[in-house]
Amino acid sequence: MIDRAGRPARWHPAIVALHWLTLLLIVIQFLLASPMRDETRNLIERFEFYQLHKSVGLTIAAFVVLRLILRLGLPSPPPLNAGRWLRWAADAVHGGLYLCVIALPLTGFLMVSSAPVQIPTLYFGWFAIPHPIVADKATYELMRSLHDWAGDALIALGAVHLGAAVVHVLIWHDNLLRRMWFRRGGAAQN
Ligand code: HEM
Ligand code: HEM
C-alpha cells in the first residue's frame, strides 16, 4: 500500500532482509571476539577465529553499503505517530547505528593492515584481500581503540534501539515491528 505522498506502508523486502541479516552477523562478530583473543587457545584455532571475524566483518561492510544505496534510492515508510523529539531521537539513533557499522569494518581493516605483525586477510579462505596501508604501530593502536569504542557505541545504541522497539510493540501496540518484516499473504495485508 502506498500513501498519497508515495510512501509505502512497510520497508522494502531487500532492506528488511539486510537489516536482520546484519543483526545476525553482528551477533556472530561479538561471539567471535572473545575466543579469538583467548590466549589459552592454540594459535591455529585463534588464527581461524580471527579470519572468520575479519571475513564476516567485511561482509557486513558490503551489506551496509548495499543497504545505504537501497535506503537512499527507495521510498521509506512514513514516521509513526510520535512527537517531533521522538522522531528526531529515532533518526539520531539510526544514524548512529549506521556510523557504527561503517566505523567497525573500516577501523578493523585498517587495524589489521597497520599491525606490526602482518597476518594476511583471507576472505573465508578463498582469496587474500590486499592491505591498503603499511605496518605502523601508532596507526594500529589508534584503530584498535576506535574499533573498541565503536563496538561499545554499537552495543549502547543497539540497546536503545531495541528498547524503543519493545515500547512500540508492548505499550503503543503499533505496527513498527511488522513493517520491518516480510509481507505475509496477499497484498491487502499491510
Ligand atoms: C561490524 C563489523 C565488526 C564488529 C561488530 C566487530 C566487533 C569487534 C569486537 C566487539 C571486538 C572486541 C573488542 C574488544 O573487546 O576489545 C573486535 C576485535 C577485533 N576486530 Fe572486529 N568487528 C567488526 C569488523 C572487523 C573487521 C572487518 C576486522 C578486520 C578486517 C576486524 C578485526 C578485529 C581485530 C583484529 C580485533 C582484535 C583486536 C584486539 O586484539 O584487541 N573487525 N571486533
Ligand atoms: C536488537 C534487535 C533489533 C530490533 C528488534 C530492531 C528493530 C527495528 C525496527 C522494528 C525497525 C523499523 C523502524 C521503523 O519502521 O521506523 C528498525 C529500523 C532500523 N534498524 Fe533495527 N533492530 C534491531 C537491531 C538493529 C541493529 C543491530 C542495527 C545496526 C545496523 C539496526 C539498524 C536499524 C536502522 C538504521 C533502521 C532504520 C531503517 C533503515 O535505515 O534501514 N537495527 N529496526
UniProtKB/TrEMBL annotation:
One of its GO terms (cellular component) is plasma membrane. Residues 10-182 form the Cytochrome b561 bacterial/Ni-hydrogenase domain. One of its GO terms (molecular function) is electron transfer activity. Keywords: Cell membrane, Electron transport, Heme, Iron, Membrane, Metal-binding, Transmembrane, Transmembrane helix, Transport. GO terms for biological process: respiratory electron transport chain. The chain crosses the membrane at residues 12-32, 52-74, 95-117, 153-173. SUPFAM superfamilies: Transmembrane di-heme cytochromes (SSF81342). Its cofactor is heme b. It is a multi-pass membrane protein. It is found in: Cell membrane. It comes from the Bacteria. Belongs to the cytochrome b561 family. PANTHER family: CYTOCHROME B561 (PTHR30529), CYTOCHROME B561 HOMOLOG 2 (PTHR30529:SF1). This is Cytochrome b561. It comes from Bosea lathyri.
